Amino acid sequence: MGLSKINRSLAIVAAVVVITLVTAGALYRAHHHEPLTLYGNVDIREVVLAFRVPGRLAQLRVDEGDVVHVGDELGRLDVDPIELELREARANAASLGARLRLLHSGYRREQVEQARATLQERRATLTNAQSNLLRQQELRGTGAVAARLYDDALAARDQAQARTVVAEQSLAELESGYRQQEVAEAEAGHARALAVVAQAEQRLADALLRAPADGVVLTRAVEPGAILAAGTPVFTLSLRRPVWARVYVTEGDLGAVVPGRAVLLDTDARPGRPYHGRIGFVSPTAEFTPKNVETPDLRTALVYRARVVVEDPDDALRQGMPVTVRLSPVADSGGTRP
Predict the structure, then answer these.
(1) What is the largest CA-CA distance in the chain?
(2) Which CATH architecture has domain 24-44+241-327?
């Protein structure tokens, strides 16, 4: 137990000494106007590319290591099934569109004229039946035969009157066109058919995979002939821009590391030829220094993460590459935040 307490005491003393030295170093640099040096790694964004629709992979145009530009075709699916769906959808939409135009235009003129002629015929028949009824009414009391003829004439008049009403209603319906409910139903069906066409067209467009930005192909996960589900990874693309560097700042140096501050970035790949950049973001919360950051300070000290935007990146900058960031203790008054 005594040895354990001694070890803990020594660890506490060592941590206090290191923090004191780090703080003193920051104050010394500020007083003597020495450049502030930060350490971190290159951070290049990656994008996993996939088709939005399922299908059989027909072709891939690029391989690992190829440089691609925004809009370049990277691969495509077999589009024959989708084109068949699209043709069927377009034919259905055309049929429903023709039906809708028919409803909007109303009934044919020939139908209206035929209904008008039928009404005239029914009216003439009604007039004749009424005249016959009047004649039979005058002879109604002269005998049994006259009474029967009157009843027949009355029935004929009523029948002619009913048929005339039906003809009038038919003509009015033809002249007014189709019902609003029928037109609304046809419009909804046509709109639904057009939506199906748009979906098929979108599926056809999604069967072509294009580069969303300039970059380098890192991985090629599948080969032509494979049956892919929607969202199956096909390529991993390393973006050429933006290129960032993640660095870590102690609390004593936060006053010098402000957004928009100009910096120089040194790498082992280009000795003596630094890259130019600016501070783009400083985290508001403290964290422990990542173990992969090469810094002479204590790795478990609390630091603040900062992002440096590289203004002149090239292919020599690779993901995870260690970088040394140098900046003057005097703020660059002409800098603007990226």
Answers:
(1) 146
(2) Beta Barrel (2.40)
